[in-house]
Amino acid sequence: MSRNRIRIPAALAALGLLAAVPVASASDGYPGTRHVLLISVDGLHQADLATYATQHPRSAMAGLLTRGTAYSGARTPVPSDSFPGLIGQLTGGDPAATGIYYDATYNHRLLPAGTTSCAGKTPGAQVDLTEDLDRDQSRLDAGQGLSGLPGSVLGMTGDPRPLLNPAGLPVDPRTCRPVQPHEYLKVNTVFEVARQAGLRTAWSDKHPAYEILNGPSGAGVQDLFTPEIASTGPAGTGDWTTDNAATRQYDGYKAQAVLNEIDGFDHSGTRRAGVPAVFGLNFQSVSTAQKLPKSGGQTGGYLPGGTEPGPVLTSALDFVDGRIGAFVAELRRRHLDRETTIILSAKHGQSPTDPGALTRIDDGKLLAGLNAAWQARHPGAGELVAQSTDDDAMLLWLTDRSPAATNFAKQYLLAQNGTGTDSSGAPKAFTNSGLKTVYAGADAARYFGVRPGDDRVPDLFGITQYGVVYTGGTKKIAEHGGVAADDRAVPLVVSGPDREARTVAAPVATTQIAPTILRLLGLDPQALQAVREEGTQVLPDSH
After folding, report:
1. What is the predicted pLDDT for the residue at 236?
2. Looking at the DSSP assignment, which residues form a beta bridge with residue 438?
3. pTM, to two decimals
4. In whole angstroms, how far apart are CA 295 and each of 237, 263, 290, 316, 474?
5. Which run of H or E residues covers position 89?
6. pLDDT tens-digit series, residues 78-100
7. Per its UniProt record, what InterPro entries does this chain match (predicted)?
């Protein structure tokens, strides 16, 4: 047993996670499940899966449906973004419980990154858990210093903490120390509960900042493989998302890591470690294929009408299906197929699917106008907007949280009309800053289910008119982060041994994946703090 595993119970106990709820022994698991492989195909919609399986009845994704329960009414948390989406799947909680609203947010209690003398400092800090936190964002290994990249990327560490730049982290005024991503998460994870029961854990994702999945103990994921997707791509121009062939190459490294883990090795394939009880990855290929107007000379996204994928998206779906098929084949070859449950879902969808609905709006101009109007009304005041995160929703954190300030921001934005661009780049008029509904101040807190004045909740949450994407250019035709069905209606399939095909049409949430994983492994779902706080249920007909 490694030193890390010996130290885990102490780390968990220090946070009160051991004593809070008894955890069942792994030997009490449901017959047939010793391993759970979670696959997130980012951007994939429930409709995409249904159509693909119908058109490709011999495909790997169709095979998952024939051996499992499909939840056709599954929805992601709001905002429908990668961080709250995946963290919801692995904690059982919405942002109200987890404290995670996006990967780039603001906290009114913490101090800015780089603060070294904390006495008397005014709180308020950006919390940037994106690629900006890497030691070297330009490198696929995030600054580890491997030679022979990209081919050597599987040699990356399984502990991404040394790849993070502490100078980019917000500072806790109580300790005057940087807050690590895992420390920022308010609740424990499936990985922590599994490790407490003596089970092995692994995950692969797109930034080292996904170290947050370790949970408050800092010790949840034993093997966390995080090649940087925003690093310089293979062509030397742009990152791995600017060309879908590059994204598929990138995803291939993470898929190989999972194959190595199925074979009983760590992600690199060089060290025997045992097959994880909880492991998986996210795929980015479908997401970038939905966003790119063109890639490799072919049309990205969906064809007019928004239901049929264009050629780039079709290739991405075929690629992901092939990798899932490789997982299934390797599980079978290793005689693990009858003791492994595969869960297929997505962190988020993508909106709009219909290119004719797209309206791109430069949010930078809107926010500059808001700041200028506020300063004109309050001479000598600084900028009102402390942090904005705008994809196809608008999340604002303000320097002044008073009702007067939050209402000012709301009324200003709802009064702005202008001109954006459509999917071809032609001018397209917009009204009300592209917003349909705006929650500000106490209303925003109530919308997310937290108390007014909460340190983390956005001071303004804007729900966009369908098809609006905030971007200053024409490089993308879809985004996520909002509340539209295109954002939130994702697939959810629990597939495994001795299961019959069935469909549950009743509404469910992707947060229900977390307690379901534990129940499948014979662990107590109530060991998850968010499950207890929010009453998150195990998925019906999942075992």
Report:
1. 79
2. 462
3. 0.94
4. 14, 34, 11, 11, 14
5. helix 82-91
6. 999 999 999 999 999 999 999 99
7. Alkaline_phosphatase_core_sf, Phosphodiest/P_Trfase
- For residue 227, what are the CA distances in angstroms to 212, 232, 374, 463? 15, 12, 41, 32
Domain boundaries, the chain: 3-97+156-162+181-351+488-534, 359-470
Which residue bears the tokens 């940037």? 128
Compute CA distances 397 → 105, 377, 443, 455, whole Å: 8, 19, 14, 10
Number of residues in the chain: 543
Please say whether the beta carbons of 332 and 262 come within 8 A.
no
**Where does the pLDDT of residue 9 fall: very low under 50, low under 70, confident under 90, or very high at 90 and above?**
very low
Q: How far apart are CA 320 and CA 315, in angstroms?
A: 9
Looking at residue 465, what DSSP letter applies? P
Q: What is the dihedral of CA 528, 533, 534, 539, to 10 degrees?
A: 30
pLDDT tens, 200-234? 999 999 999 999 999 999 999 999 999 999 999 99
Averaged over 24-32, what is the pLDDT?
47
| Strand (E) or helix (H) holding 395 | strand 393-398
R_g (Cα) of the chain, nearest Å? 22
| Per-residue tokens: 10 | 């102490």
Read off φ and ψ for residue 489, nearest 5 degrees: -85, 85
Q: State the fold for domain 3-97+156-162+181-351+488-534.
A: Alkaline Phosphatase, subunit A (3.40.720)
Residue 425 CA, chain-centre distance (Å), reads 29
Backbone angles phi, psi at 229, to 5 degrees: -75, -25
